[in-house]
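Hi support team,

I've been running sequence recovery on a batch of backbones for a student project. Most finish fine, but this one hangs at about 90% for roughly twenty minutes before it completes. I'm not sure whether the input is malformed or the queue is just slow. I've pasted the structure tokens below so you can try to reproduce it. Let me know if you need the job ID as well.

Thanks,
M.K.
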């Protein structure tokens, strides 16, 4: 015990090279299993990557106690469900562990949130992982909380659809050029033939990345599922898991009924988010990973309140 007491503590005993304050110091990408609280009273276990940082407001201090932060995170992961209140309590403990050194703390958790999603028509269902991020900052008496999710969906190009319809029209005229009248049965048979799909519009897997600031005191749990649901209901064409043919056909119908440029998708989401009072601010980036080009089509929108997210900021 005496030998341990005599071990050097450079962070506590040595002077800093330059006497300056620091915005944030800490650790990134700590892997820990955590339990995300759910509305049904249960919890969803996930493997999260955590970033934890504090500021240094005392320029006389050389460094922070990273082991204290790590042990607090370990205890939090083992004993607490992740909720707005438990996150605030953790950050209060982090600040208390660095009295005289720090006044603020920031926590970031990133993980895949799994949801079991039903098929469109059949009784099938399957699991989808939604990349999610929780970011919280505690600064004296102020506590702010943001949640982020990435939702994959399908987008059919309206321009490509119009060009395909033109080719379909031309093929129909060519095949029935010698007939003055065409029966209903002949048209139906032609539409079901390969000639009925002489051209098809291109679609692409697309991604909506949505970041929202919430009022922590208004939520017992983190509203990740409700945010995901709002995004998918707005876009109408979320990617599927297990499907039968009737599900695939319904997916094709939904794509045809909801053709979107990236601008259309961004406007849909902005309109949806603007109607939800829970979100104090939001930032949205939609990416259409095109099948026609080797580049992506991108649109970015935000709520645009003073002091909010920059509409040009890539997050």
């Amino acid at each position: 015990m005496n030998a341990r007491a005599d071990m050097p503590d450079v962070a506590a005993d040595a002077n800093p090279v330059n006497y300056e304050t620091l915005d944030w110091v800490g650790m990134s990408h700590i892997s820990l299993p955590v339990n995300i609280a759910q509305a049904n009273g249960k919890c969803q276990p996930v493997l999260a990557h955590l970033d934890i940082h504090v500021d240094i407001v005392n320029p006389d201090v050389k460094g922070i106690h990273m082991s204290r932060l790590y042990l607090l995170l370990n205890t939090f992961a083992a004993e607490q469900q992740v909720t707005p209140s438990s996150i605030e309590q953790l950050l209060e403990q982090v600040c208390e562990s660095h009295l005289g050194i720090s006044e603020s703390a920031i926590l970031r958790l990133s993980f895949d949130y799994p949801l079991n999603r039903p098929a469109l028509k059949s009784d099938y269902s399957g699991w989808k992982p939604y990349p999610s991020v929780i970011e919280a900052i505690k600064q004296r008496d102020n506590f702010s909380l943001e949640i982020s999710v990435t939702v994959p969906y399908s987008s059919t190009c309206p321009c490509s659809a119009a060009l395909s319809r033109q080719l379909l029209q031309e093929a129909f005229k060519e095949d029935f050029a010698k007939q003055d009248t065409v029966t209903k049965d002949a048209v139906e048979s032609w539409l079901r033939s390969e000639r009925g799909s002489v051209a098809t519009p291109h679609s692409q897997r697309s991604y909506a990345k949505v970041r929202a600031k919430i009022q922590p005191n208004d939520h017992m749990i983190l509203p990740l599922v409700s945010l995901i649901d709002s995004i998918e209901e707005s876009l109408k064409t979320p990617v599927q898991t297990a499907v039968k043919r009737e599900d695939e056909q319904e997916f094709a119908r939904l794509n045809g009924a909801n053709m979107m440029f990236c601008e259309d998708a961004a406007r849909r989401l902005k309109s949806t988010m603007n109607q939800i009072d829970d979100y104090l601010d939001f930032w949205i980036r939609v990416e259409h990973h095109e099948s026609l080009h080797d580049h992506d089509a991108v649109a970015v929108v935000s709520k645009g309140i003073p002091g909010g997210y920059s509409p040009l900021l890539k997050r």
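--
Follow-up from support: It reproduced on our side and the slowdown came from queue contention, not your input. Strands lie at 22-37, 43-56, 81-82, 104-118, 125-139, 142-156, 203-214, 279-289, 296-302. No action needed from you.
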